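Ticket 4471: requesting a sanity check on a complex prediction with zinc ion. Repro inputs:
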Amino acid sequence: MFQNFDAPKAPVRGRNRLDAVRALMHETKLDALLVPHADEQRNEYLPANAERLAWLSGFTGSAGEAIVTIDQAILFVDGRYTLQAADQVDPDLWQVESLIDNPAHKWLAAHPSDITTIGYNPWLHTANEVGRLQSAADKTGAVLRALDGDLIDNAWNDQPAQPRQPVRIQPFEQAGKLTTQKLEDMDAALLSADAELCVVTDPSSICWLFNIRGSDVAHTPITLAHAILRRGELPLLFIASEKLDIETKAFLNQVSYLHEPGELPTKLTELAQNAPVMLDPDLAAYAFTRLVEEAGGTVIKAADPARLPRAIKNDVEIEGARTAHLRDAAAITSYLAWLDEQKIGSLDEITAAKKLESFRSEMAGNMPLRDIAFDTISGSGPNGAIVHYRVTQNSNRTLEEGELYLSDSGGQYQDGTTDITRTIAIGTPSREQRRAFTLVLRGHIAIALARFPKGTRGMDLDPLARMPLWQHGMDYAHGTGHGVGSYLSVHEGPQSISRRGAQELLPGMILSNEPGYYRAGEFGIRIENLVLVREASDIQDGDIAMMGFETLTLAPIDQRLIDPALMSDDELHWLNAYHGWVRRKLEPLVSDETNDWLRRATEPMLKDLPPASA
Ligand code: ZN
Ligand code: ZN
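Returned structure tokens:
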């Protein structure tokens, strides 16, 4: 199993830990210390040694920060984690605040009197974050002090070591582009930014650039490493040599100078003297800004130059994505067929999630499942209405008659990353469930069928997915789509379809198309396929070129939840064409039993006939 279903740990009665940290604060002459949920490289999943906030507070959620003062400890979490935080921290020691309405920098600005020196670890905050903290400190006259070393690390006796998992080469057959070619593109980016150096800090960018993968963190096949790109010269790659075998070492030696991670500050100081250095203000640790400036270099604030080329998949990566999706679809569809066979009331959320993972693991072939892409969201009834639900032994519930079951999952294969959500009727759905599902489906189809000219951004398309819901006074509180990596992070920038999606959509980008609807305490609905941006060749006699999406994900959409009377002819046509394609592609890949189910599940729907279940 690539996941576990343990309940969040009981509160750590952490007075000793807080006391130890406060003693260090006293020695260092600090009135306040910032403790973010972050590692040095902004990873979505933190390595165990970077779980400093969890160690200190007991809170194990995936986002948050804390301020420790001499007599207060405040934990900041977003709405998803309010209840969990209250359960996990010791209420005698901690107070919980909103990370959204009143984050640490705002809280500091409002508490001027007793806080004159605020300490932080510059390796755990980006330049933009430090900018916000600095303006808060300026407001109150406090001093914001970058610390050498981390006070939590000093107090944490049994802190785990940095992960050192082996590195694998991502072969040209899957990567589709040589590192030397990618480095040439980086050189051009440095030239146009007038930079001599660029520190690449995002492990996804490093892995993409050097065609390597690893398993230092859960669910994202990255290895922890940094690179210094140099205009016109080979880059320096900082990676623990114990992670490299003879083959990977030889491979990387051809395209870089290899160094141990500990050498990074010294090397950067040497190279940055009088040099213009590119740093991403939202990704790079602020410590890099300090190193560059102390060395007499100048910082050029610019987006990580690997982000956009990484997002635009090449033909080999696109073909890999199609193959990975086909393999994944065979597993998903076998799972959906199995799910339908189960007696109502006999299945719970954890059993269902485990079964899905085992279907994926069994779809071995030459490209076995390397990991799941994230912890499976397996939510029935009211649990389905919790957007980022993670089932645990405590929350686990049985799938009951009349409920909706939401399953959001993904796989990591060497040729691609998948992410799919299906919402399934358990027994007979209500009118209201069918109406809401059909509206969500119409939004999904609107994205699938969208045609748009060059220059269109994700934020321009986002309303298309919401309009059918908006027309009925409904909406959902998350983005419509996120970027997805190629055997990398399942949440990849800069592309997205959301209110904040300012990146122009370009052919080769992969995104999710996942509108939803959530009725608290009752049910949740999401329909998610991954889509590829490509030129639209199906328009005749148009004036200008258009782009559109090719859907990559294949799996039946539950027709028991669709009310065809609410759909247009074009929408029904899309649905029937999609199901026809799913059936043709999957028929050769699944068992006879699954095929029997698949044929029924993909039967064409007609407007003037009652739905199959009625
Ligand atoms: Zn998903
Ligand atoms: Zn997704």
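Notes from triage: The first strand starts at residue 32 and ends at 36. Leaving this open until the requester confirms.
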